[in-house]
Each structure stands twice: as C-alpha cells, then as structure tokens.
Amino acid sequence: MSLAKDPPTALTPEEYFEWEEKQLEKHELIDGQVYAMSGGSVNHGRIAIRFTTLFDTHLDGSNCITGNSDIRINILETNNYTYPDASVTCDERDKTTNQYITYPCLIVEVLSPRTEAYDRGSKFRMYRKNPILKDYLLVNYTSIEMDLYHNNDAGDWLILNYKQGDIIELKSINFTFPIEQVYRGLTLTPEATP
C-alpha cells in the first residue's frame, strides 16, 4: 500500500467517495489519507476469486452478502475504509448502505510481499475493532499456507496455521473445505520481496 499520487489531503468519507469515483484505481482511506491499492499477481487474483465463489455458493439462499475486492469495509467507529480480497457479512445493518459494509463476520486477505506486514499488523488491529468479526484469514499465494485468526467465544484471538493436507474451518459461516481446493491448478513460485 502506498500513498496515492497527488491526492487531496485530510479527506472526509464523503470527499473520499466522490474523489475515488473519478480514479482509475482503488484507494483505501486511513486517517484522512488515501492510499493506492497495488495490483496483484495472477495467482493472487485467482485465489481471491476462488474464495468469493466458495463463499457465495456455500451461502446461497442465506441472508449473507459475499464481498469481493470491490466492496469496501468501513472500520467500525472510524472514518477508515479498506478493500479486503474477500469478505462476508450476515448483519442486517450492512443492507442499508450501498458504498461499504461495516459488520463483516469474515475477512480474507491474500498476502503479498508488499502488504503482508500491514495485513498482519495495523490492518488486523483496525479490523479487530468490529465485535462481529470472527474469522480473519490470511492466505499465502506462493505456497499452500493459510493463517486463520479466530475470535473464540471468550473473545480471545487464536491463530491457527494451515498447510497442505489440512481442512480449513471457518466457524463464522459454518464452512469447511480442504486447503488444496483454493490452490488447484496454480503454479506456486516464491516471489522476491520488492
């Protein structure tokens, strides 16, 4: 994530929505500053599509909304907006807005060398402000590995590490799947850190 080129400074959410509508790229709004979202690799995009397809199929007929990387999340009680790779909300309050959701129970971020520290650190700290969030899944796209941050019934965040051969359990949407289902047909190669 990098600061957008020539962005207006200290934007309100309304100014941000209006400004971003005129941009060719997506931007996150954090503390009034806009940050350009960098493009991902082919594997990154294919993995994100797999998740939205899996979730949408699993939740067909429910009152839940599956989001792709075009659906913003408003960080609860802030004027910050992010674009995760996939999300799910089953909260009725999210059906009253058309520019963002606020109460996802599940968020997926496909990691890249450029954003991994942010996704694991300050972005996760922002997401944790939402008491509805139960599962935060971080997905590697160069090897078969995922880390699930799960908010248990006691309110503690547990970290579950998954690798080849494992079954992923997302309690937030009552869904399990073999990890290989997301990676099928992909050529996985390590990437150099920029």
UniProtKB/TrEMBL annotation:
Which Pfam families is this protein grouped with? Uma2 (PF05685)
Record keywords: Endonuclease, Hydrolase, Nuclease
Gene Ontology molecular function, alphabetical: endonuclease activity
User: In what residue span(s) does the Putative restriction endonuclease domain sit?
Assistant: 13-173
Tell me the SUPFAM superfamilies matching this sequence. Restriction endonuclease-like
Annotated InterPro entries: Nuclease_put_TT1808 (IPR012296), Restrct_endonuc-II-like (IPR011335), Uma2 (IPR008538)
Its protein name is Uma2 family endonuclease
What organism does the record attribute this protein to? Answer: Geitlerinema calcuttense NRMC-F 0142
Q: Lineage of the native species?
A: Bacteria, Bacillati, Cyanobacteriota, Cyanophyceae, Geitlerinematales
